[in-house]
Amino acid sequence: MTLSTPPPLPQPAPAPTPCTEALEALEGLEAPQAPVTPHAPARRPSGPSRPPARPDSPEPPRLPGPAGPPDEGREPEPYGPDQGRGSGPAAPAVLRFAVLGDSLSEGVGDRVEGRWRGWGTLLAEQLGDADHPVDFRNFAVSGALSQDVADDQTPRAVAFRPHVASVVVGVNDTLRRTFDIGRLARNLDRACGDLAAAGSVLLTACLPDPGRMLALPAPLARPLARRQRAVNTVVHALAARHRTLHLHLADPVWTSDRTLWSADRLHPGERGHRAIAARFHSLLAAEGLAHGAPPSREPQQPPPTTRDVLLWLATSGTGWVLRRCNDLLPQLVFLAGGELRHWAQGTGARLDRRAENALSAALAAVSLDVPRARMGE
User: Could you read off the pLDDT of 160-201 as tens digits, one per residue?
Assistant: First the structure.
């Protein structure tokens, strides 16, 4: 397996100073304001949708994608979505695998020999075998937003022309006061569409609610929960449109097992990264795209202790909290005030309706017609 690291990208620019919008506008979810030879983009697949990643998970809505241009006279590229082992042309000499996203995909929480490893590397090590080597590139950057993935990471990944590519991002968007579900939907649809058009099999995942993971008080946690549910609804719809291999990482069975998480409670630890790698490997193996044995789920390092958590809070955690105090916290306090006022008046459903309306508009903007999401569920 060839591991190559792309040149580092500049970190996302700091958010502008807090806006002075009226309190009413801040309540609820904000409304949407070996060289590789290039070849023509492949037609987006139109076969039957894949089954959900977990039989006990809710299945994403099945939505038809827009028809792609005809590709008459061109053979489908090996390792394409409908070219599993034993069907179609022979597999290429090297399977190209790209990872896009934020700190979760960069590998934060799984440090080996002073560097982040993560689920992407663990999966890449087991995708190939002696006859099918893997060329792996990780484009993910800590702190990346959906716009960073669409604008910066996706063009570089498309130039790499991966046979398999993952797009897992969204939590950082929910932790910014500039959160806009419409902008996130457009960014993710563009990233997934560009990679799918280049012939990549896509890996996606819905993610846990950060407020729950951090055990925030209910008035602070509820606005973040609405945002994350909206993000996951968008990801489910895009997973169906682009026929991705999808994991439900927001399931309680995943979020309630603290042995899967690192000391910061926001990133998986080694055990968690191994679990993600093993689950993606299972989905790829079902498509004939994984030739090695599944990654081991057993960690080589012990889970974080209480001392590790306290040490993180005293070092890296302090900086993280200060950054959020300058960005998200002022707005979150306003939102929490709205939560408490509506709770006292018995009108909390009004905030859910606002979030649902913003989500519906975001989905309509990228031509995704799905049932209205129920923010209270």
Answer: 999 999 999 999 999 888 999 999 999 999 999 999 999 999
Angstrom distance (rounded) from CA 338 to CA 8: 41
Given the DSSP bridges, would you call strands 95-101 and 111-112 parallel, antiparallel or unpaired?
unpaired
What is the C-alpha separation between 362 and 122, in angstroms, rounded?
35
The CA-atom distances, in angstroms, between 54 and each of 60, 80, 248, 259 are 11, 22, 7, 21
Q: Which two tokens stand for residue 54?
A: 């977990």
Cα–Cα distances in angstroms (integers) from residue 177 to residues 63, 101, 289, 322, 325, in the given order: 31, 20, 40, 14, 11
Closest residue by Cα to residue 76 from 89, 93, 91, 85:
89
Instruction: Going from the first residue of the chain to its last (377 residues), give the mean pLDDT of each consecutive group of 10, the final group possibly shorter.
Output: 52 42 37 37 38 39 35 39 42 85 93 89 93 94 95 98 97 91 97 97 94 84 92 95 94 84 85 95 94 90 72 65 67 84 87 91 83 51
Structure pTM? 0.73
CA dist., res. 268 & res. 275, Å (int): 9
* Whether the Cβ atoms of residue 210 and residue 250 lie closer than 8 Å to each other: no
Q: Label each residue of 150-201 as H, E or C.
A: HHHHHHHHHHHCCCEEEEECCHHHHCCCCCCHHHHHHHHHHHHHHHHHCCCE
Instruction: Report DSSP letters for 267-330, one per residue.
Output: SB-HHHHHHHHHHHHHHHHHTT---SPPPP-S-SSPPP-HHHHHHHHHTHHHHHHHHHHHTTHH
Q: What are phi and psi of 94, to 5 degrees?
A: -130, 130
